[in-house]
Structure formats: C-alpha cells, structure tokens
Amino acid sequence: MRAAWAVLALLLVPPALAADLLKWQDAQGRWHYGDTPPAGRARAVQAAPAPTPADRQAADARTAALEQYNRAKDREWAAEARDREKAWRARTRATERLSRDGRAAISGPRRARR
Fold it and tell me: CB atoms < 10 A from the CB of 28, how many?
C-alpha cells in the first residue's frame, strides 16, 4: 500500500516542478500543451500553487484514515474467512463421522417414504 502511494506521489511531483506550461491552438482548432510553443502562438497557463504544510498535513491525515479503514476491512474479511473455514471443517468432520458409522450424510430435508 505504501508503495502505491509512493508511486502516486512520484507521478504528481514532476508536473508541479515544471517551469512553464504553455497552451496553444492549432489551425484545426485543437489545443496543445507543452514547454516549447510554435512561433509566437502560445500563451502561458497558470500553474497550480505548491502545496502548503497544512495541505500536506490534511493529505497525511486522509492517508492515515484510509490505511486505518483498509486494515479494519482486512481484519473483518479475515475473520469472515476463518468463520467460513470453521463451518466447512465442521461439515466435513460430520460427513466423515457419518460415513465411518455407515450412515449416509443428509444434505437436505428428509422425505417421507411411501
């Protein structure tokens, strides 16, 4: 999980460090972005401001809350998996006991014989 956040941070840092971002429209009306414009046809685009320490703290708090939620969900899913496995083992043991005793395991309601 930490690796995913590190990769995300690395992907977001280079655009923030870019010096100038330029935007221009070609003859067909399509917009282009880059750091080197065609001859005199570009205008500068306002770059996003650098994050403040408060922004970083808020992001860290959101990350911590998300990690806490994920850990709680992992524990919940693990407990459910343990419960399913316990039930499966109990059914298996009961079936083995019935087979050993020479009785058929009953998987559904009994039907009256005529």
Answer: 5
List, for residues 4-49, the tens digit of each pLDDT value: 766 666 666 555 554 567 777 777 888 877 777 676 655 656 667 7
Q: What is the pTM of this model?
A: 0.42
32 touches 45 (CB < 8 A): no
Give the Å distances, CA to CA, from 82 to 48, 72, 76, 77, 107.
48, 15, 10, 9, 23
Q: What is the pLDDT of residue 67?
A: 97
Report which DSSP code applies to 10. H
- Spatial contact of 19 and 35, defined as CB atoms under 8 Å apart: yes
